[in-house]
Write a structure and sequence with these properties.
Structural class: mainly alpha
Largest sheet: 2 strands, antiparallel
Shape: flat
Number of helices: 13
CATH topology of one domain: Rhopdopsin 7-helix transmembrane proteins
Strand order of the largest sheet: 1-2
Strand content: under 5%
CATH architecture of one domain: Up-down Bundle
Radius of gyration: 30 Å
Helix content: over 70%
Number of strands: 2
CATH class of one domain: Mainly Alpha
CATH superfamily of one domain: Rhodopsin 7-helix transmembrane proteins
């Protein structure tokens, strides 16, 4: 009752602000986060849009090249992160609270994880494609079909795993002697919620329960975080270790076998065998495509590993009985924000990596500029021609009117 009376006083706003934590109020940290996101957004937009134009320009020539097909889909995933996730984060950080409707909260959160999930799935596809090309070259006869199937699976898996509860399904309540409601929770679902003490403050938060009223939702938040880490980091990391470990083993094994054959026989046949096996295999393994995918993979690990180490430390320091922090590990909120921005920075770096490794950028940019200039010149000539035709029609109509009057 006292609180309600206080809210109705002249300084009620100040009393309400007492219930807001520092991360719920706009401050210097928000300004720094907005600046960082803006820089990343600018760099990512320039790189991804430029690479999209280059990939589309060369699409007819590289349509049969499965690596360029993978790059095109990876570029689309990075564009989703660039033009949906980053602007949303900038706006949300500026307003602090969520000012949009509930459906916008759910849809933007859905697209946030969809773009990141799709990017991680495509990274797995690139690793598997290089693994099959080097370790099992006989699969090259079906390589295009394999890549097509992997791309379809990547989009479907990303759409399903990032779907809100209405798209997936809601688990039924299972009555057990020691539990009233089990397995009824929202997977990666967000909803609009109001502050329990301040009516005007709303936020887009994760909803751990459906119609069930669970006493402790910390376990479900942990479950969602594990699924998140599994899709974004653990599965790609496993694919990277397996695929590139197999590629390295294949290269070393074939090189060793070729050297042994050359030293034992020392004839022309063994030399030919050496050239066929190790030399061409090593040359094939060190081509631009393998180097490019390796750089993309290493950049992914560099960007995302610090963030998931921070997430692991967060849950190590969590008291699951109360949902609070144990206080044994101090995590600076500013560091948490910057680690996540650094993880999202991966979508900014990707186009520059495969752009420099796969294309002659000077030539491509020169051709894009010349094509743009040609189109602009054509439009100017067409507009001038239309203006001249309009002027001629006006003159001819005036002449015919003058002739009819004189007659």
């Amino acid at each position: 009752m006292t609180n309600k009376t206080a809210f109705n006083t002249s300084d009620g706003y100040d009393v309400e602000m007492m219930y807001l934590t520092p991360d719920m109020v706009f401050g210097p940290r928000n300004i720094m986060v907005i600046c960082c996101y803006s820089v990343v957004l600018l760099l990512s937009a320039v790189g991804n849009v430029t690479m999209l134009l280059i990939l589309l320009k060369n699409f007819s020539r590289t349509r049969s090249n499965r690596v360029f097909t993978l790059l095109l889909h990876l570029n689309i995933a990075d564009l989703l992160v660039t033009f949906i996730h980053m602007p949303k984060e900038i706006g949300h950080t500026a307003t602090v609270q969520w000012l949009g409707p509930d459906w916008l909260c759910r849809s933007t959160k859905y697209m946030d994880v969809f773009g990141i999930y799709l990017s991680s799935n495509l990274l797995i596809c690139m690793c598997v494609d290089r693994f099959l090309a080097i370790v099992h070259p006989m699969f090259s006869f079906r390589a295009r079909q394999n890549v097509r199937n992997m791309l379809i699976a990547s989009w479907i898996i990303a759409a399903l795993t990032s779907s809100p509860q209405k798209v997936l399904s809601e688990f039924c309540c299972i009555s057990i002697s020691f539990s009233k409601c089990l397995l009824k929770f929202r997977i990666f679902t967000f909803c609009l919620a109001n502050h329990p003490l301040i009516d005007w403050y709303s936020q887009c938060i994760s909803a751990a329960t459906g119609s069930c009223n669970l006493e402790n939702s910390t376990q479900y938040v942990l479950f969602n975080t594990i699924l998140n880490a599994l899709e974004i980091y653990i599965l790609p990391f496993t694919a990277i270790v397996f695929c590139y470990g197999g590629i390295l083993w294949k290269i070393l094994h074939e090189a060793k076998a070729g050297k042994s054959a050359a030293s034992e026989k020392g004839n022309e046949a063994s030399s030919a065998f050496l050239r066929r096996s190790s030399y061409f295999l090593i040359r094939r393994a060190k081509n631009k495509t393998l180097r490019m995918t390796f750089l993309v993979v290493i950049t992914f690990l560099i960007c995302w590993t610090p963030y998931f180490i921070m997430v692991t430390l967060h849950f190590v320091d969590l008291d699951f009985s109360t949902g609070g922090r144990l206080g044994q590990i101090e995590l600076n909120p500013m560091v948490e924000n910057f680690l996540y921005i650094f993880a999202i920075f991966n979508s900014c770096v990707n186009p520059y990596l495969y752009g420099f490794c796969s294309f002659d950028l000077r030539k491509e940019l020169r051709e894009l500029c010349s094509r743009h200039c040609t189109i602009s010149k054509f439009k100017r000539v067409r507009n001038l021609h239309n203006q001249n035709r309009s002027t001629d029609n006006q003159c001819s109509s005036r002449s015919s009117i003058r002739y009819s009057i004189e007659s």
